[in-house]
Design goal:
Layout: H1 20-39, E1 45-46, H2 53-58, E2 81-82, H3 91-109, H4 113-116, H5 126-165, E3 170-175, E4 181-186, H6 209-221, H7 225-231, H8 234-244, H9 254-268, E5 273-278, E6 284-289, H10 299-302, E7 312-315, E8 318-323, H11 335-347, H12 349-357, H13 359-376
Length: 377
Amino acid sequence: MLQALPGDGQNRPSVGDSLVQVQERYNVLRNMQAETYEYGIPPIYADPQVLDFDALANQVAEPAAHLPARARPGQPLAAGFFQPAPAQVPPDMIRHQQDLIGPVAQFLTGLFPAVFGGNMEDVKTASGYALARDQALGRLGLVWRRLKNFYGDVLLLGVDSFRKNRPEDVDVPLLGPDGMLDARMIRVGDLKGNIRVHAESDETFPRLKSQQRGVLQQLFGLKDPLIQEALSEPANIGYIKNVLGLSELVVPGEDARNKQLREIQVLLGSAPIVLSVASGEGVARGPRLVTRDEEETPAPLKAKGAAPNESRDVGNGTRSVVLPSVAVDLLLDAHAVEFEECKRWANSEAGQSAKMTNPVGFANVRAHAEAHLRAMQ
């Protein structure tokens, strides 16, 4: 159980405990204001010698009704009637209500206008708003840090329950960068020993989409070549479109990148094709698939300095050529984009993990990348 504020036992003050009395006082003032509007209409006093009350009692209430009345001699008819002033809500009571739900509540909770985008009369610059926001968030950090630690403890309980109750490894589908579900393996052996969970050292709060959009717009205005290269990286295009809210924007090369990511998942599930070709004739003697039961890597890869698609003399007047299980389309594929995506994936964490745990599949991806490279030459 998470307690927002420090204390002893289960009966601890809540985050909004400081607002309880303020809310009760505000409710009382609002009720007084509503009752003043509802019951503050004053009565009308009339002279019985001027107004016939019996006729008034028998009169049906309707617009433009006629009632018998006779003014006193020498006096106007209005002199026989009197109505006191209606009840008025004091202006200072309304101001007090606004203070209770405004500055007083903000001071007690630390939720100043800079946090939720409200107006600050004494601040006129964007840097001033940013400073006020950071100060307010620093005060709220007491609760935020406890929430992060609580979340870490929950994850630790989940991991501990998993390793105690799962006898074997588990495949978990995760949404990949190409929008397709990828299979990820959770290995029980990786969870042995002592496990510790700690919150991120960065104490900043999650940024809103509007704040992320503002940072991106600032980066677009910079002339730094490194930043411009990062913004033009195909792997960042999906994130930029999402932040800017332009999901329907068509970016050149994005479809080719997603296509290549899907092909990589297919390539990882199979082995490359090795063709035995006669050295003199250039005729294939028949393809064969390299399986994990034969060797960890294809035979041409075993040779020192041999590239996956490189022809290699294996004796008996033949040479072997390694081809990917998913062929490239020389006419329709965007070879430059797909080759760069293969290179980016191979150097990423996912690619390096596949190189260690699935060398045959990694060799298949490498052969596919070299096929794109040859198509560009």
